[in-house]
Every structure is written in C-alpha cells, then in structure tokens.
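User: Hey, quick favor. My workstation is busy. Could you predict this chain's structure for me?
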Amino acid sequence: MLDVLIIGGGPAGATAARLLHRWGHQVCLLDNGKSPAANRAESLPPSIARVLQLLEIREELEGAGFDRSTGHT
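Assistant: No problem, here it is.
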C-alpha cells in the first residue's frame, strides 16, 4: 500500500523519495519529465556533499568528472 505520494522529481523531490523509501515507506514519485532547467548550466555547492553522502551517491558523482564548484557568491 502506498504511504507517500511526491509530486515533482527535482532535487528536493528525488531526495525525499529516496530517503523515505530507504526508511521503509512505499513511495510514488510523479514527474512530468520536462525540466525547465534543461538548457541551463547547473552546479552544486560544496555544502551539498553531506546530502550526497547521505543518499549514498557522493562517490559516484565525484568520480563522474564534473567540474567542481568552490561555492556561490
């Protein structure tokens, strides 16, 4: 039986869905598949490293060869 319905598969929705599923919830994540940011450059600040570690994807992203950000100003 479904516990949680999350609408929006952006960074916040995907993070919530992954964590809730790991904690034993039945999650349904709905997304329209159209990213309004698809044509923009994006970067992640260094402060996101702890969240990526919690999601167990930090090493994978760091090994993918993306340019590193030193933070936002």
